[in-house]
Structure formats: structure tokens, C-alpha cells
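Page 37, continued from 36.
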């Protein structure tokens, strides 16, 4: 459940890199404070837009934002303009951001605050567009409680969006070709096991996936092409994939996301779309919107699962509403498969 917002504006600004997973530049970061039944305001969805998009297409940006926040009882929007403005004495893009605010009001967001932050160096001055006296200095993002929380969950805070996006760069084509060739006979064997209802055989494959996630909790991701091919083929079995839509602990969930990304970078079709769906689902359930959004942008052949998760993500549906059902299904499938003891 999202935590109550007790942060000062300075602390909230310092938490942005951890919330996004990277340090943004030339961006507009919108933080929604959502009403909670106990009367507190809690951090809702956090959405980043390119500053250029907000300046030139404010109506489209706000329309998308309304869609994202459609299920969120918004009490207040805090929009932070991250831009190192040194050319004028005024805050940057004031007339254009007034248009952005106008569209926010037209779309029903009436309690809006715009803050300017030149960057995330501790001690820089942040300012408010509407209230001249509302200003202060940035606390150190590295010591933000949210940063500590994200690091404890197994997440990194990347130095830039470009560094963050390196996770989604596939390995060289010749490597993916070799792995695809290695996976082909394995997938044939898996199909035979499925047709024969060979639970012991599938159980052994499940164990290898589980072991790979355990290794990932210690930062050990597979690099051997035969191992990667074996895992890609196994996860192409929808029964094994669905077991791994959820994990038993937060630590294993973070490790699974790292493993899925490693496999996806080494995959070609037909394996890549299946693994992309795992990345998207795991990231969405972990409230890692940056990773979910990035995999959506790179997935050219989305599966039905990917399309569903993308719709839930874009419409601001709380992951907590679907997690229990997915977890129950994963446990039931695992119990059904593992009730048969594998042959030695």
C-alpha cells in the first residue's frame, strides 16, 4: 500500500530519482497525492514526461495523465520541471507551462503546484512558479528514505535515463541466433512432455527456473548460452510461465525481474514476446512503472498478457487489485505440478 505523504517539498523532490529508477533531466515529473479513507494523502502514480512534449503538446500530455489517474482519487498534483535554466532570470518556460496548467484545470485537476528544479545536486535551489517565497534547497537524493527503500527492494537508481535504458538493449544478433538454435530442440522436448502430461519432466524444468531466480537474488545471472536457451524454452511453456507471474517474496520478485530482463536481451521470437510479458507483469506488480513502460516501448509483438498488463498500467489500476488472483493461480499451478515427485 502506498505510504502517507509526510515529506516536505524538498524531500519529495529528492525522492524523485528513486521513484523513477533514474535521475531525470529535461523532464516534467508529475506526482499525484491521492486521498485515502483515513484522511491522509498518499503517493499515487508518478509519471515522467519529456519537457519538450509538455511544452509543445500539453493537451495530449494531460489527456494521457487523466487516463493514468482515472482510478486515483487525486487531491493534489505536484509537477516538477527538471531543467537547468541559466539563460534568463525567470523560471523556464513560464508561458508554456501556464498553458499546461490551463489544460490540467480543464481536465479536472484543480489543485496543481508547479515546482522548478535545475537538477539533483544536493543543495541546489528549487522554486515555485506561483508563490515567489515558496523555495528551498534540495536534500541529498542519496539519503532519501525512498532511495533506501528502493535499494532494500533490490532496485538501482541509474545516473540517467540513458543508463537506465541500457537494460533494454539486446545482445548482438549472432548471440541471439545461436541461442535460438539451441532452444529449438528443447522446445520440441517440452511440447512432447506437455502432450504426454509428463509432470516429472516439467517439474525438473520448473526447478531449474527456481534455481536461476535463487541465483539472481545474489546477483548471479546466467551467461552461458546453453543455460539461457534452456530457460527461454522452459518459460515458453505457458504452464511454467504462469507459475512465475508471481514470487513468494519481494526479494525473489526483484531477482525474477532481473532474470527476465537478462533472458529477454538474449531472446528472439518466439521467445522474446513471452519473456517481455514476464518483465511487464513483474515490473507492474512491483510498481516499477519505468521498467514496465520501457518494455512496452520495446515489445513489438505483445502477447495477450502484455496487452492486458499495458492496459492496467496505462489506466492507473492498482496492482493490488490483481495480485491476489495471480498469486492464487501461480500457487495452484505449482502445487498441481509439484505434487508428482520427479524421477531420479
Amino acid at each position: 500500500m502506498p505510504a502517507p505523504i509526510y515529506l516536505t517539498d524538498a524531500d519529495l523532490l529528492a525522492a524523485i530519482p528513486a521513484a523513477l529508477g533514474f535521475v531525470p533531466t529535461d523532464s516534467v515529473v508529475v506526482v499525484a497525492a491521492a486521498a485515502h479513507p483515513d484522511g491522509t494523502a498518499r503517493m499515487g502514480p508518478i509519471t515522467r514526461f519529456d519537457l519538450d512534449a509538455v511544452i509543445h503538446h500539453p493537451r495530449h500530455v494531460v489527456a494521457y495523465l487523466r487516463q493514468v489517474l482515472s482510478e486515483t482519487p487525486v487531491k493534489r498534483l505536484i509537477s516538477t520541471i527538471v531543467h537547468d535554466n541559466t539563460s534568463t532570470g525567470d523560471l523556464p518556460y513560464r508561458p508554456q507551462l501556464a498553458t499546461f496548467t490551463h489544460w490540467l484545470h480543464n481536465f479536472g485537476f484543480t489543485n496543481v503546484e508547479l515546482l522548478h528544479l535545475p537538477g539533483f545536486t544536493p543543495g541546489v535551489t528549487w522554486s515555485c512558479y506561483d508563490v515567489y517565497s515558496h523555495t528551498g534547497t534540495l536534500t541529498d537524493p542519496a539519503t532519501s528514505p525512498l532511495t533506501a527503500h528502493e535499494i532494500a527492494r533490490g532496485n538501482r537508481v541509474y545516473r540517467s535515463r540513458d543508463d537506465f535504458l541500457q537494460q533494454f538493449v539486446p545482445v548482438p544478433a549472432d548471440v541471439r541466433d545461436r541461442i535460438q538454435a539451441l532452444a529449438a530442440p528443447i522446445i520440441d522436448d517440452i511440447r512432447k512432455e506437455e502432450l504426454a502430461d509428463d509432470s516429472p519432466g516439467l517439474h525438473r524444468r520448473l526447478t531449474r527456473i527456481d534455481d536461476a531466480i535463487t541465483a539472481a537474488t545474489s546477483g548471479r545471472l546466467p551467461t552461458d548460452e546453453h543455460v539461457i536457451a534452456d530457460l527461454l524454452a522452459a518459460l515458453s511453456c505457458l504452464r511454467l510461465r504462469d507459475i512465475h507471474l508471481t514470487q513468494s517474496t519481494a526479494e525473489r520478485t526483484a531477482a525474477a525481474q532481473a532474470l527476465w530482463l537478462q533472458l529477454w536481451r538474449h531472446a528472439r521470437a518466439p521467445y522474446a514476446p513471452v519473456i517481455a510479458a514476464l518483465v511487464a507483469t513483474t515490473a507492474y506488480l512491483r510498481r516499477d512503472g519505468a521498467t514496465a513502460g520501457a518494455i512496452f516501448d520495446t515489445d513489438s509483438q505483445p502477447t495477450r498478457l502484455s496487452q492486458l498488463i499495458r492496459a492496467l498500467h496505462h489506466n492507473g489500476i492498482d496492482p493490488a487489485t490483481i495480485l491476489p488472483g495471480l498469486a492464487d493461480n501461480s500457487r495452484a499451478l505449482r502445487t498441481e505440478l509439484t505434487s508428482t515427485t520427479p524421477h531420479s
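Residues 1-7 have pLDDT under 50 and may be disordered. Flag for discussion at group meeting. Residues 173-195 form the longest helix (23 residues).
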